[in-house]
Design goal:
The chain is mainly beta and 106 residues long. It contains one helix and nine strands; from the N terminus they run βββαββββββ. Helix content is 8%, strand content 41%.
């Protein structure tokens, strides 16, 4: 599985959470979320739970997100668009990472 890194002070633009167990299928914008989870740490915690089928976030260039195939890799790949956090490990904030080369999103 890949590791997702992000700007730790930003939140995803849009969030989509699905849980068949809870009958939940919601999409919301972070700036209009009420008390719904918006931080990456909250969303990754939800994604780790088996009762949630999808925790999908929309990442714009503003979030400066990228993934690496291994935690120790020195190359990363920019991420822009919808991604399911269930497909990634939480790499954490990019300020704690040591990346040498970043490939642009396709």
């Amino acid at each position: 599985m890949k590791y997702l890194y992000y700007n730790p002070i930003e939140v995803p633009e849009k969030i989509h959470i699905v849980s068949k167990a809870f009958g939940l299928d919601i999409t919301y914008a972070a700036n209009n979320s009420g008390n719904k989870p918006i931080s990456f740490s909250e969303l990754f915690a939800i994604a780790d739970l088996e009762c949630f089928d999808a925790v999908v976030v929309y990442l714009s260039p503003h979030e400066q997100s990228y993934y690496k195939n291994k935690k120790s890799a020195i190359e990363g790949f920019s991420v822009v668009g919808w991604v399911d956090l269930k497909d990634f490990y939480n790499g954490g904030g990019y300020l704690d990472d040591h990346i040498i080369k970043l490939h642009e999103a396709i």
